[in-house]
Design goal:
alpha/beta, 14 helices, three-stranded antiparallel β-sheet, binds zinc ion, about 35% helix, binds magnesium ion, Alkaline Phosphatase, subunit A
Length: about 400
Amino acid sequence: MNYIRLALLLLFQISTICWSFGQENYKTVTTEDSLKTHYGGTFYPVDIYEDNFENESPKNVILMIGDGMGIAQVFAGMTANGNHLFLENFKNIGFSKTQSRSDYVTDSAAGGTALACGRKTYNGAIGVDADTVAIQNIREYAESLGMATGVVSTSAITHATPASFVAHLSQRTLYEDIAADFLKTNIDVFIGGGYKHFAEREDGKNLVDTLVLKGYQVVQNMDSILKISDGKLAGLTAYEHNEKYSERGDMLPQATQTALNILDNNKDGFFLMVEGSQIDWGGHQNNTRYLVEEMLDFDRAIGVALEFAARDKNTLIVVTADHETGGFSIMDGDMKKGMVKGAFSTGHHSGVVVPVFAFGPGAQNFIGFMENSEIEPKIKQLLTSDNQ
Ligand code: MG
Ligand code: ZN
């Protein structure tokens, strides 16, 4: 037996495992039984907005992705908030089939790419097709029409979902290349974690300096981000991923508001993608409390978007998910207390359809069953008919 070879092999395997934990440590399933139940908390009020618009097509589009948000996640949130969510304002509702080109159960890269680029691809792909050829995403299309664009996320901004609206790479784990792809765009606003992929890179480049040279205000805390209402903004709010809701607070609704304030300055409209990233992580961890808190945070960000759209009357909001996570179900609940007792069938994603909710001009196009890759062409068509 060659002991040195065996030792080297072991060392390699341990370092690989450590590396993957570092990037994806949110995936560890909890063994603590008390975390399966959300015992309730304070409820927030939900405003009602009229979905009654004269225009057939919108000037602005806000696409909101609850990563891992299936029907049970939505209803867990509704139960936890005393039987109400901002999502109830959406009267046009459909289902998205999330299967990727390579797998029945998609990952967030193929799921994000289908939503961003309108094409099914292999798991792990960021903005490229099955032959790793770059596909234009809806944000780039909007940019080509002279629209302002933005991306907001509670994960690292380089993580699969936001990356799908910016980058074109063969693998989701190429975080530094994804960060570099932000510099190739004309994106107006991005707010999320991932500072290290811009500033502390293996190639020694400091992309924060490059962002500043390109005219971006590069800001690392929400207090400063909240004060910005024009110009270009790179909000890098965490070294890697943002903390969970209990620690990061209202970062997502606030970042959504800031992005809307900036993007609305553009007379030719805007495209904004907002991701509630960590509903997925609550699912991976089989942690009902985590899942519910993230679901409610995402719903409050939807509330911010609704308030804007109802006032603006020219904004389409589409809310959907890239896939379901955890095979989550609700075993018991209490609307008065906001209690939700959850159960999970997997620590991974599941293959079930996810909901699609639409509000505003053109919303009636998003009802019934559809492939995840049909959502982007629908949005594109609505923007094209508005701009030509
Ligand atoms: Mg995500
Ligand atoms: Zn996931």
